[in-house]
């Protein structure tokens, strides 16, 4: 199973989602993240995201921003988008129905009409980053449970 988390810049939300998800799934599940724009390519996550993750014992400092590529749609089984604009952009890059089926809105799994998007904390403060961390943590937990039969298949 290969999971890709996607946001706009790949320096705030999707690096947090990558870092959090990695703590929840076994090592044979590959988790990565990407952005829809290449503006921050090669940069480490935003310091506030790094600090917020560190406050929860998660090190995301070594991640590097990269834009989503054509190959990602073949490589990954699941592609989770942090907000609706990102979702629309990612879907527009798919080339067939199989690829489209892999793409979903990250928080859809919560079934909570008030929280369908992970707000962009980039223009906010540390409180916004902490709120986003909590929301992403809930999303990752729900996705882990949803995928549990695939992630931890029952061995007969
Ligand atoms: P992200 O946040 O999509 O969660 O990584 C953003 C990062 C950078 C910008 C916007 C959002 N920016 O405009 O540079």
TrEMBL record:
Keyword flag Hydrolase: yes
Ranges for domain Phosphotyrosine protein phosphatase I: 1-146
Presence of keyword Hydrolase:
yes
Q: Report the domain of life of the source organism.
A: Bacteria
* Pfam families per the UniProt record, alphabetical: LMWPc (PF01451)
Tell me which SUPFAM superfamilies the record gives: Phosphotyrosine protein phosphatases I
SMART domains linked: LMWPc
- Which family does the record assign? Belongs to the low molecular weight phosphotyrosine protein phosphatase family.
Protein name per Swiss-Prot or TrEMBL: protein-tyrosine-phosphatase
Q: Which organism is it from?
A: Chryseobacterium endalhagicum
């Amino acid at each position: 199973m290969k999971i890709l988390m996607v946001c706009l810049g790949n320096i705030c939300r999707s690096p947090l989602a990558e870092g959090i998800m990695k703590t929840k799934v076994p090592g044979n599940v590959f988790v990565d993240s990407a952005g829809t724009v290449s503006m921050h390519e090669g940069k480490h996550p935003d310091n506030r995201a790094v600090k917020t993750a560190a406050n929860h014992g998660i090190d995301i400092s070594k991640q590097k921003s990269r834009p989503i590529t054509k190959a990602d749609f073949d490589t990954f089984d699941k592609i989770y988008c942090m907000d609706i604009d990102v979702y629309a952009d990612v879907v527009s890059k798919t080339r067939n129905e199989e690829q489209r089926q892999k793409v979903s809105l990250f928080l859809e799994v919560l079934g909570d009409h008030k929280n369908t998007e992970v707000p962009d904390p980039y223009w906010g403060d540390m409180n916004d980053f902490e709120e986003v961390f909590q929301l992403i943590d809930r999303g990752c937990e729900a996705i882990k449970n949803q995928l549990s039969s695939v992630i931890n298949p029952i061995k007969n």
